[in-house]
Amino acid sequence: MTSLSLRREEARRARRARGHVTGPGPGRWAVLAALVVLAVVMLLPFAIVTLNALKSPAEYSSNGPLSLPRGFYLDGLVEFWNRVDFGRKLLNSFVISASVAVLAVVLSVLNAYALGVGRVRGRLWILVVFLMANTLPQEALAYPLYYLSKATGLYDTRLAVIIIFTVVQSAFGTYLLSAVLGEFPREIIEAAAMDGAGRWRVLWRIVVPISRPTLSVMMIFFFIWTWNEFFLPLIFLISNDNQTVPVSLGVLQGDKMMDATLSSASALLGIVPAVAFFLIFQRTLTRGVTVGAVK
Amino acid sequence: MSKKGIAAAFVAAALTLAACGSSGSPAPSAGGGSPEARTLTLWHYEGKTSAMGVAWADAIKKFEASHPNVTVKFEEKGFEQIQKTAGMVLGSDQAPDIMEYNKGNATAGLLSKQGLLTDLSEEAAKRGWDKLLSPSLQTTARYDERGVMGSGKWFGVPNYAEYVMVYYNKDAFAKQGIEVPATYEEFTAAMDKFVKAGVTPVSTGGAEYPAQQIMYQLALSKAQRPWVDAYQLYKGKVDFHGPELTYGATAFADWVKKGYVAKDSAGLKAEDMIVGFISGKFPVLVSGSWLYGRFGSDVKKFKWGTFLWPGNQMSAGSSGNLWVVPEKSKNKDLAYDFIDITMSKDIQNELGNAGGVPVAADPAAITDEKNKELIENFNKLSAQDGLAFYPDWPAPGYYDVLVSGVQELINGSKAPDKVLDDLAQPYNDNLADIGN
């Protein structure tokens, strides 16, 4: 096992070394410059948000959004945290996103196993339907879902949002995973079947472990996507006690008012969990992506 | 191995949390404890430090003191959330007992037409709210069966008012030796002086509400109440090429030509306009009383003051947002009591002292000099029946129509009479829609 991973490590190093042989030509510098520009463009909004989150409102108004803050003004952050009971919103967002991520992956796996490996009849059309469900604008879903949730007594509960997003995300997950599992080496499955494994066993013992990198990437994406959802949570989570982070940020947007410093403070608080989550799981993420790419 | 661990932890955490979450969600109308204990659920979306936020927090305290068995469950909402979801919430059992809602045909009017709001006519008469509110403030409280404001039943009660005025930088005016203008001619003369001195006088933004309100103010300088009633309440025909709007559009185009407003302001937003004034770059700003508190706390570099648009009988302005009582409210009697407290002299005076425009305050009880100026100007306007509402009210989506029309005037890409044609079309389409 260790010798195997060592050998793999060597191979990787060799590949990298080979890449270096070509040396830094002008083309590479151009790519580097383009990447630097891109990085600056991507990071600039974050920098501005951070800048303004640390300013007092008076400072912002008299010196404009691009001036440097004089000292750390943390009252905005603290005020926002207390005003919307941010700890509770974080918990809500986590509960919803984590449940959706797990449930949607499970659902996607079951669906994709049937469609990709099981090859049920008319699978193409089933996939088209899934894809259509995925492209449907959420505004179109709002009213039907509202009546359904009212009829089932789930309106204004986190469970309603969990169910909705489990379905929405797994529609995409099914589509993606069916394509991946369609390419699943049949020999492995046949060998397992020969050894007497049933369909259930093949799924959990063979298919899931082998496609685990893809599944973890999907889970992470589902988590982040659900975390950032705004429209449907806005409609379904009416009580402040049930609201998620993005919805709570909307509290600051008035009719004709905009509190730029407080909004920046809240945006900063809203971004931090997603960034933290990404940093924790980024190794899984990149590994999953590269594994998929090599295949 | 580690991946499995992470996934397992994930599942466990998520599911336990979800389980405890769904069972632990509190019932909206808590009834525990003694059988008499009641809860009044109240929603509004005014900032905690705004005049309304301050006054209403006090109203809640007073209410709880006079109703010892009632707890007020206050939830601060976002403006957008209420805008997007009010119709759904009010149709469900999660409706609050009382809430703040936007005045106007497309908002309170629409909900009243759908039967989602309680008719408050009886209470308004019984508790004397109809006496406290002047006729133009009542306009936005009453809606007919088509959901058009101005007549019919009471569906809301406004607590505060707002109006458009001219904010000016006292230091900059003094530097140019300019007095506060009393007539429109003096006003333009003052702006000419600034232009000559190389200063663009008026901070505005064409991408949002500010610039269209200037055009409306200009049109109103030629208008009286009947024209406003025709334009806003559909009582009579509006000629878009009549003297009022023609003057509004041509005079505004003139403002651009003479350099009163910057040529690049077409793409600016309200926030840019505000920051432009506070930073001292522009000495004049035309906007509403909703900015009063912000300037009070944020303007540090110079002295500022306000005056009503010189020479106008009418000015953009209206009641503030409304207290409405949802039809599904479970505590309507408590909701009425609460509205009554917010209309009381104490709370109204407090609203005035906190920088708002109260509708029923005692002017003598307003101690703050600055706020006195704000309220006196409003009382003057209200006494001459001068609230003319806002230009974008008459038709759904008219705001965007006005934004693009005014932007074309600023850019000079269309002549004023062509712009008026563009404005007339959607207005008349809407008239046909509501059957006028």
Automatic annotation (TrEMBL), chain A:
PROSITE patterns: ABC_TM1 (PS50928). InterPro entries: MetI-like (IPR000515), MetI-like_sf (IPR035906). The chain crosses the membrane at residues 29-54, 90-112, 124-147, 159-181, 202-227, 262-281. It is found in: Cell membrane. It is a multi-pass membrane protein. Keywords: Cell membrane, Membrane, Transmembrane, Transmembrane helix, Transport. Signal peptide: none annotated. Residues 90-281 form the ABC transmembrane type-1 domain. Belongs to the binding-protein-dependent transport system permease family. This is Carbohydrate ABC transporter permease. It comes from Sphaerisporangium corydalis.
TrEMBL record, chain B:
Residues 1-18 form the signal peptide. Keywords: Signal. PROSITE patterns: PROKAR_LIPOPROTEIN. This is ABC transporter substrate-binding protein. It comes from Sphaerisporangium corydalis.
